[in-house]
Design a protein that fits this description.
mainly beta; three-stranded mixed beta sheet; 83 residues
Length: 83
């Protein structure tokens, strides 16, 4: 099955993932509706694969800082509060 691959930044301190871009990975299976090898105008309603695999996160940047959302929430976990 085809899937979306989400490239992004992984924040090691808060363990959050910030997406930066998304691309589709083609499975090259002619039975997969999302594949470039699937016949255009296919009339088969049963045997075709109609779902993608769950998106895969691909950390292309590793950051030793907290993500923007965690910085905004502050140490108490509430938006707009700072020590």
């Amino acid at each position: 099955m085809c899937k979306n691959v989400i490239d992004g930044r992984y924040h090691t301190i808060c363990q959050h993932f910030t997406p930066m871009s998304t691309r589709q990975q083609d499975c090259r299976n002619n039975a997969c509706l999302f594949s470039s090898t699937h016949a255009p105008g296919c009339k088969h309603k049963g045997p075709c694969i109609r779902m993608m695999e769950p998106p895969q996160r691909n950390p292309i940047r590793i950051s030793d800082t907290r993500c923007e959302g965690c910085v905004m929430r502050g140490p108490e976990g509430v938006l707009g509060r700072s020590p």
